[in-house]
Amino acid sequence: MRVAVENVAGRFLFAEVEEGEEQATVGRLKIAIAGAEEEAAQAQRMILVTAAGRVMAEDQTALAQYGVSDGSVVYLYFSPDGSTSWHRSYEDYLTIPS
């Protein structure tokens, strides 16, 4: 599966992840983006958001559960401290009625 990844600077890169429920996970996508398994520390700071605005917070979750498939676009951000607790506030912000 090939996923397009756009970073905050607006640059695109493409990440390849093995097809299948067990192989195509958020964690594996982060590793593919980092470029190598040795970059695990960088991968832990990655925050991925789907085009629909869903934060992909759980590394073990299959990409398909977030609606990500071959050719999908996800957005890449980095947490300054590696914390994932901020995503709850982000999701709350997205669901606040205007």
UniProtKB/TrEMBL annotation:
Domain Ubiquitin-like: start-end pairs: 1-83
Protein's name according to its UniProt entry: Ubiquitin-like domain-containing protein
Pfam family, one: ubiquitin
